[in-house]
Amino acid sequence: MAKEGADMTEETEFMIDRNVGQETVSVESRAGNAKEMRAVMLTGFGGLNKVRVSRKAMPEPQDGEVKIRVKACGLNFLDLMVRQGNIDNPPKTPIVPGFECCGIVESVGGNTEGFEIGDKVMAFVNYNAWAEVVCTPVDFVYKMPDEMTFAEAAAFSLNFVAAYMMLFHVASLQEGMSVLVHSAGGGVGQAVAQLCATVPNVTVFGIASSFKHAAIKDSVTHLFDRNVDYIQEVKKISPDGVDVVLDCLCGENTGKGLSLLKPLGTYILYGASNMVTGETKSFFSFAKSWWQVEKVNPIKLYEENKVIAGFSLLNLLFKQGRSSLVKAVMDKLLCLYRQKKIKPVVDSLWALEEVKEAMQRIHDRGNVGKLILDVEKSPTPLMASDSTETSEAGEEEEEPEGDNDSKERMPFIH
Amino acid sequence: MAKEGADMTEETEFMIDRNVGQETVSVESRAGNAKEMRAVMLTGFGGLNKVRVSRKAMPEPQDGEVKIRVKACGLNFLDLMVRQGNIDNPPKTPIVPGFECCGIVESVGGNTEGFEIGDKVMAFVNYNAWAEVVCTPVDFVYKMPDEMTFAEAAAFSLNFVAAYMMLFHVASLQEGMSVLVHSAGGGVGQAVAQLCATVPNVTVFGIASSFKHAAIKDSVTHLFDRNVDYIQEVKKISPDGVDVVLDCLCGENTGKGLSLLKPLGTYILYGASNMVTGETKSFFSFAKSWWQVEKVNPIKLYEENKVIAGFSLLNLLFKQGRSSLVKAVMDKLLCLYRQKKIKPVVDSLWALEEVKEAMQRIHDRGNVGKLILDVEKSPTPLMASDSTETSEAGEEEEEPEGDNDSKERMPFIH
Prior knowledge:
Shape of chain A: globular
Helix content of chain A: 25-40%
Oligomer: homodimer
Order of helices and strands of chain A: HHEEEHEEEEHEHEHEHEHEHHEHHEHEH
Number of strands of chain A: 15
C-alpha cells in the first residue's frame, strides 16, 4: 500500500497545489479521497510564501511503524529555521515540515507490539508531522494519558522532554540551585519553570518580553525584560551567579550567559533563534551569522570551573539513536503529568491553513506557551482588504507564483 | 608571633641560601632554630634551577588557621606549570610552592573548632605547602583516618577530590557508562580508575606510556599507548564512543577527545600539561601555546549533543570559595577509603632537597601514581660524576649562580 501511495504523490500534488492556489478546497474535498490527505508543504527555503497546504498521497506504515490519524501538531521555533534552510544538512524540498504530533492510531505495521488501533498517542516524526496522517517508527510513539487533551499532547512531547533532559541529564538540577531561562514565556521556558518547581527550593530567573510578564509572572521566581540589562539585575539578587543557564538564542548572549554562571555551573545552548533575525533575510546572510557565534576557549572553562553544553532533542532522536533514553524520560514526565505537577501551556490553536500566521506569531515572539496546529480546525475567514500586517514583515520577497494564498486571515484569534 | 617571624624572613633566607649552596646544612641545623624552618623556595619562574631549599621564618596561625608540622607533601604537574610561571595570574616570587600536605597539628588560631594539637591532618594550602611547617585556614583541613599513612595522606587530597568531583559532580557518572582517562598512570588517573570501580559496570579506557602498562593494567578495562592512534582503538571496541573523557593534556587532544564522546557525553579538561613542553622553553613560548588551544564552537556542541567542561580544584577552593562543598566530598572519599574501596597509589618518596629530581620525573611522565615530598627523609647521597641525566633535559638554562646545587643525586630510588 505504501508503494502504491508513493507512486501517486507527484501527480496528486501538482493537481492539488493548483486547487489550493484558487482557494477552492472545501471541507468536503479534504475528507474525500481516502488515498490522499492534507498537509503543510514547504516548497523551498525562504519566507512565509514557501509554505502552503497541499494534498499528498496517504502514507502507509512500514514494518515497525504506526499510522496516526493526526489531531494536533506542535509548532516550534526550529520549524522557522527549517523553513529558512538555516539548519545543518537541510532536507530536500518539497517536504512536509513538523516534528511532533498527536492523534489516534489508525493502523500498525509489523513489530509494533504495545500499540493498537484506536490508541490515543503522541509522537515525534522526522519531518512530515504537519499532516492529516503520519507514519512514524514505534520507537517515537508514546501513549497519551486518558485525561490529556490533544492540544496538550501536541504541546507536551518536545518541550517537556527537552526541558527535562537539559535540567536533569545535562545539568543535574538539585535542591537549592538556580536556573536562568531565556524565552521564559515560550513552550520550553514554561516547561522548564514547571519542572524546576518539582525540585525543592529552586530559584528560576526568567527573561521575557515585558508584555508577557503578567501572564507568566507566577511561573518563575524573578522575571526580567529582555531589553534591560538582566545580567546586572540577576547579579543584584544573586551576586555569585546562577547554576544553570538555558539559552535558545545564542550569538551575543552566549558570553553573557557564561558570565552569569557560578563555579561548576552549566550553560546549555538548546537553540539558535537569533539566527532567525528577520523574515526577509536571504539564506546566505543566515549562514553567515551561524558561523559568527562566539567560540569558547576550554582554558577559560578550566580556570572558571564552568560547563558548556549543547542540546538538540531532534538530533538525539533521529541522528544519534537515543529513542529508548527518551522513552524512559517520557515515562517519568507522564508520571509527573498524572500527578498534576506539570501541565503544558497552550498559547493558541491554528488550522493548517493558518500556519503562516502561526509562524509569524512565534517569529515575533508573541506567544505564551505553545502554538498548536489543530488539524480539524477550520481557518478563520479571510480578511479581504487588510493583508498588510504579516506581509510587511514576512512577504517582501513574495514570488509571483500566480496564487493568492498570501492573503491574510485575522491573526491571533485563539 | 607571626609578625615577628615575618620580620626575620629576608635576612634569614639570604644566610641560608648560601648555606644550601655549599651543601652544609646538617640534620642538626635543620631541626635547630624553632623560629625557622626548611622550605622549598621558587626564586623566579623558569627551569629546575629556580628551585632550592631555604630556611624561612616559621609561620604562626592567624585567626581561623591551623598550624601543621608537615610530614609529607604532594607534588603535582601543576607545580611544574607554576615553576614556569605558565598559569593564570602567577604569584610573586620568591614563594614556597605546593598546594597539599599532611602532618600533625602543632597549634591552632582562634575559631578552629574541631581541631586539637596532635591531630593527624591533611590539608590544602594556597602555596607554601612544601615546608616543614604550614599554616592554613581550617576550611581546608581534614582529619586523617587512623589507618592512613602520611605518604597516603599526601597522595590523597588533590587527586581523589578532583577525580570524584569530575566523575560525579561534573559528569554524573552512572552504572554502565564508559570513561576515557589520559595519563592513566598518574595520580589523578589512578584515582579515577579506582572511583570508577565503585560504580557497577563502568568501562575505563586508559591512555599511558607503554612502559607503565604492566604496572597499571589491572586498574583499567582497556589500556592504550599514548603514541598509537588510540582514537581508532577505542572506536573498535566502542564504535559509539565514550560517555566521559578526562583530559589533562589539552592542545591537540581536545578535538580528539571531543570526537570520541557519545551523544550527551562530557569532555572535562582538568589540566594543560601539554603546555609544559620542555624544561628549556621560555615563558613566552609557553604563553603562546596557551592561546593556541583549539576553541570550541557552541553550535557544534548543540548539533552533536556534547558537553565540554573545565575543572580546576585549586581555583574552586582558593578563588571561588567552595571549601564546604569540597569538605563534603572529602567526607565521602574518606568513607570509601575506610571501606577499602580506594587507596592512593604512591610512586615514590623524595626529600625536600630532591625536589628537582622529583620534578624531572613527573615532567618525563615516569611516575606511576603520586610523587611525595617526605619532609623527614634525608636526601640520597650525591653522585659525584654522573650529573648528566637530569641536566640534559632540565638544566640547559642553568644560570651561573655560584652554587653547586645542580649536582644530581641518584634519581628515582624509591
